[in-house]
Amino acid sequence: MSHQHTFNWRPRLFRAFVTNAYYANRDEYDAFQQQQPYTFAEYYRANKAELKQQFKQQHQQEPRP
Description:
Structural class: mainly alpha
């Protein structure tokens, strides 16, 4: 019996975190009436290591049930 479905939520959490970070960054550019120089894919590739580090820090700080 395979329990592969058990861990499907982990990539979704990171994807949601990256999406939220992208839109927060875009909002900062909008606040200064500038256009963001990145597409979503470019933003992810340029900031991949930093996003992973921030996600791990946030995930470790969340209380466990």
